[in-house]
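Retro notes, structure queue

What went well: the backlog is down to a handful. What didn't: a couple of records were mislabeled last round, so from now on we paste the full input next to the output in the thread. Example, using Endophilin-B2-like from Acanthochromis polyacanthus:
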Amino acid sequence: MNVPWDSFVCSVFLPSPRNSRLLVLPSPLHKPLGLDPCSAAPDFQETRPRNYVLSASASALLSEEVDKAEHELRVAQTEFDRQAEVTRLLLEGISSTHLNHLRCLQDFAEAQATYYAQCHHYMQDLQRELNRCANAVGVPQSSAAVCPNPVSSAFLSGPSSPGATVSSSSGQRTTTLTMEQTQLPVTGTRKAKVLYDYDAHDSSELSLLADEFITVYTVPGMDPDWLIGERGNEKGKVPVTYLELLS
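Corresponding output:
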């Protein structure tokens, strides 16, 4: 009988009157660790709990880092949205302020133009009234005719505001109209170009349209700020300041 190497032989002597028998009983023995290479393999049953703990710790740490990064991203996005809204409101405020400033400047220019135009008109009325008073008391017309018209000259020679009805170039050309008008012969006529529109206030005046040409002349005893204008069959008084006398 073959006996494995990891068993030992037990000799049992059975007393018998007739014979003796040697019994071989197998008995397992542990193999030496150095003799079996399979005995050096790790025990996965023992390392599995340890690996599970490490994996759980790593997962918890990664989850914590992800949550922290997401929180920081949400905070940054909220701050960016707030700054973007503030910037948008500021830009809208700048645009509205610019438009409001431009509108105020236009209103101011129109108010200034209206004010000085009214002042010019009132001073012309005052000068005509003074001339009529001078004629009533017997003051020679020549002395009244040579009276300066500083308001008209200052208004027309000064810089024009935006929105005014008189251009600066036209105003500069008409500053010498009063002097030229006084040099007109009593019976002579001249051509004149209308600088801007004029609406007649009564039947004795002639309405004018800008850029049209009319014939003008003066008569003895007439207000120096006015001329007699003719356009076809129409005739009436026209203000000197609305005309450019042509040579």
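Agreed that this is the format going forward. Reviewer comment attached to the example: DSSP finds five helices and five strands in the chain.
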